[in-house]
Amino acid sequence: MEMGLYQQQTMKLVMTQELRQAISLLQLSTLDLHQYIEEAALENPLMEIEEQDTSSMHAESYDMPVMWHDEPPEMQEREEHNEYSPFDQAKDDRLRVPDYLIQQIRLMPVDKFETKVLKHLASNVGDNGYLEGTYEETAAVLPVSWEKYEECVAHLQRLEPAGIAARSLKECLLLQLQRKFPRYELAEQVVSDWLEELGTHRWKEAAKRLNVSLADIQKVYDEIQQLDPYPGSSFGGEKPVCLVPDVYVERQGDTFSVELRDEGLPKIRLNRQYRHLLENKEEGEAAEYAKQKYKQLTWMLKSIDQRQQTIRSVTEAIVEFQRDFFKDGTSQMKPLTLKDVAEAADVHESTVSRTTTNKYVQTPHGLFELKYFFSAGMNNHDGEQTSTFAIKDMIHDLVDKEEKQRPLSDQKISTLIETERGISISRRAVAKYRDELNILSSSKRKRYV
């Protein structure tokens, strides 16, 4: 091959920094975008942000594509004091399990050493209510004998709530049953010796060995279902997360309107000093720096505007496809793919995927993630497709209405859906959807009383 220098023109798709920014902003939720704007304001001295205030005066607008307004210092100070969110007043009053136990230990008639051991044990009770750690670990910290350790554990297990400080599920259930009055001795015996068989519905063997009927085992099962396997679950745990909708769908007669949650975003105000520097068209290093930062600011604003418009168009397309859902609920959900919405909104499928990620919509039927409205479907005898959500509702309704002494098998459910709804669905598909609905198999749903 001959060596040499040659010129060749080619076309390449280059991801500019601005394009990357637009793509990344599209994936952010409204809360994440709020945080992104605040972080950008720390890096760009031209940006000054303020929270939305519907009672404030209309902002002045200029030829530049940035909205700002200048106000007297006392007005700005008043706005800062008026910034209010109802979530700012929400206090985190969650009481941890160890704190609740220690409050009770202080009222117990025990000596100082036992109090010290009890507080140590209480600090080792996890959020689920179970006692963590071993005697050896406690003995390495405190000079306590095995007998005293077991005595202190017993003291701790007498505290509220029932079942607290257990070291296994069996012990937790027994502690709760032992507080029942009158005592349910059969239930205690089943939990003590036949808990695994009870959980796997191997009741015949347990009934035979205990010389009781299956109806008696059913009553024990129902009693145990009322117990709490995690007595510490009502305390502490993770801090609850507040989901804020990014878009609203409101019904107005037979039509639906899509509204974006713009009030969740802060208003961006151009810094007064830099604004004068740009308007006077001065030269120098400071002016060039201001122009560069202003360019970044305007591109970010354009990206935010494009993000809002994309969310609106994608949501409107979803509403158009799922109009029956917004009217009548989940049972009317239709099959929908990213491609369907992409074609309706005139965007790429990847754009629809990014737009629906971490975005929530407030509908007349509740709060849903935008991705919730996408699902596969199955054809009925007429060639029409039915969403998997609707099929799950059919399975749920059939199980609710079944005769509990003779529950429907997966094959029977499949046959009923085909004969009543005209949808051909396999037994394996029924089993799959049943598992997703957390519905037990027919053998485990069977009742004897």
Automatic annotation (TrEMBL):
Signal sequence residues: none
Residue span(s) of domain RNA polymerase sigma factor 54 DNA-binding: 288-447
Top-level taxon in the UniProt lineage: Bacteria
Start and end residues of each RNA polymerase sigma factor 54 core-binding domain: 97-274
GO molecular function: DNA binding; DNA-binding transcription activator activity; nucleotidyltransferase activity; sigma factor activity
Keyword Transferase: yes
Keywords per UniProt: DNA-binding, DNA-directed RNA polymerase, Nucleotidyltransferase, Sigma factor, Transcription, Transcription regulation, Transferase
Annotated GO biological process: DNA-templated transcription initiation
GO cellular component: DNA-directed RNA polymerase complex
Record keyword Transferase present: yes
Recorded family membership: Belongs to the sigma-54 factor family.
Record protein name field: RNA polymerase sigma-54 factor
Organism, scientific name: Salibacterium salarium
